[in-house]
Amino acid sequence: MNKTIFEITKMDCPSEENLIRMKLDEISSIANLHFDIPNRKLTVFHTDEIDLIEKYITELNLGGKKITTEHTNQTEFNDDQNQRKLLWTVLIINFTFFIVEITTGIISKSMGLIADGLDMLADTFVYGISLFAVGGSLIKKKRIAEIAGYFQITLAILGFIEVIRRFLNAEKFPDFTTMIVVSILALIANGICLFILQKSKNNEEAHMKASMIFTSNDVIINLGVIVAAILVNGFDSNKPDLIIGSIVFILVIQGAIRILQISK
After folding, report:
1. Is the pTM of this model over 0.90?
2. Which of 137, 148, 191, 244 is deepest in the core (most CB within 10 A)?
């Protein structure tokens, strides 16, 4: 058995972890994957095909780089039996906040909240693919990933069109109070998701680190919407909200492209 450690510089949250798991799922020589999200490290236990493993990780464009490969006598792994239950938990949390942010975004006329809600939906897709494809064929998993990827891109493009329309036309300013309150709630939700998934790995050092929360793209997006809300109120303009919305739509499209790479 060999143990190869990769540095994944853009692995910011459990969503990227699940993308990597899905990408490597078809490689039969992999015995186990161990993720250290706070330190952005992936340990692959495998018997062969290291070149293929490295190729697949590189294709995800998450900044994957092989650090070391060494022989190990470890052949047994304690997989967490509650992992499926925890994935369902974070899926429900993400989907719930997708509904909340889309609804409040429409009511408050905030593209930042709408875009953040779409980002929550993107994470929901990743967890959903991981859950529904378990035990299924590789073809089924790739088909689901392809549908999810194109659906995300379609929604993001529609979002961009709405952003352009609001740039060109006089629109009522978004309700900055709603933006701040909902974003703080989403921030808490993302923190909970990161905490329970990282804690499930029984890694006390990892889940004790506050840095694991603040390295997440999702959390950075939440903070960005809060800052945009403050700027909307301070400058009496809807432009900060449209700018943060555009940035998040770009991130959603990037995530969708990674999902589509799995379907190839």
Report:
1. no
2. 244
